[in-house]
Amino acid sequence: MTAAYILRRFVSSIVVLFTVVTLVFFAVRVLSGDPVTAMLGDHATAQAVQSMRTRLGLDNPMYVQYFGYLFGLLHGDAGRSISGDIPVIQSFIEVFPFTLALALGSIVFGLLLSIPLGVLAAIKRSSLLGSSITLLSFVGVSIPSFVMAVTLLLLFGSLVPILPVMGGGDLSNIPDFLRHLILPVLSKGLITAAVLARLVRAKFLVVLGEDYMKTAAAKGLSRSRILLKHGLKAVLAEISTMAGIELAAMLGGLVLTEVVFTRPGLGKLLYTAVIERDYFTLQGGILVFCILVIGVNFLADVVCVMVDPRLQYD
């Protein structure tokens, strides 16, 4: 049954991806304006404009461009960047490690911070500590990600200049790369921790009232063993689901973080493509984000079903 569910989810993910590819292809061409004019300028001659259109294949009928694009994707070709004249796939490969490190670093930091805080907030719900954690998590959820990024940028750029506030560092120099990663990870990770801590607290409060928790206590098991072995295990599926949703949402929200900290990454590349009307890069970037989001949601569903097969649904 579990295998059948995973297969259904995989097929539905492929259908969603195909639908997104189609919508993005036509939407980008309708909404992004004329990329040739944007690239050559308003004073370009008609001959130069037509020559560029022919070179980019933009003078073909729309359906020809569409099927040509699908054929190219199946063969690993997403077109060439109009502004940089390099393969779109190559430009994404160059910056993907920066985005991946930021996303994974933020979600790991968020989980490491949120799980103990959420458990403490549930156990000490009537104390000052529990109330303080709940209040801080509410404040964290209410802060927009760009506000958090700008605040950290100003704090460590002017008042406490001990960390680099711009750039992504050198991939070949791991210490330098990690130092450039600290502030962006804090920016996204603190908000993620606030969201997940509220979830952990709410789910843990429910678990604490379950009969099997009371039975475990009546058997004389230590409180720490009850909380860790029985309590935390019961909310693992919920935590993994929410973490997957947060990671998927984070991938889309990294645009602002990468722009604020002037980091290379998929978000910054997508932002530049919008400004330059480079819709080959734009549609490729949106497609990459969609693949990542769909893939993360698929993996989160699979993990949940593996942890608890009762969570299968159509």
Tell me about this structure:
It is a single chain. The chain is mainly alpha-helical. The chain has a domain at about 90-275: MetI-like fold (Orthogonal Bundle). The protein is built from 13 helices and no strands. The longest helix has about 35 residues, at about 90-125. The protein is globular and about 85 Å long.
| Rg calculated over all Cα atoms | 24 Å
Low-pLDDT sequence parts: none
Termini Cα gap = 12 Å
Largest sheet: none
Q: Considering DSSP H and I runs of 4 or more, what fraction of the residues is helical?
A: over 70%
**Could you spell the SSE succession in H and E letters?**
HHHHHHHHHHHHH
**CATH homologous superfamily caption of one domain:** MetI-like
List keywords for this structure.
single chain, 314 residues, mainly alpha, MetI-like fold, 13 helices
Could you provide a short overview of the structure?
By secondary structure, this protein is an all-alpha fold.
List the helices and strands and how they pair.
Blueprint lengths: L1 H30 L3 H6 L5 H11 L5 H13 L13 H36 L4 H15 L2 H15 L14 H35 L2 H8 L4 H12 L1 H25 L5 H11 L2 H29 L7
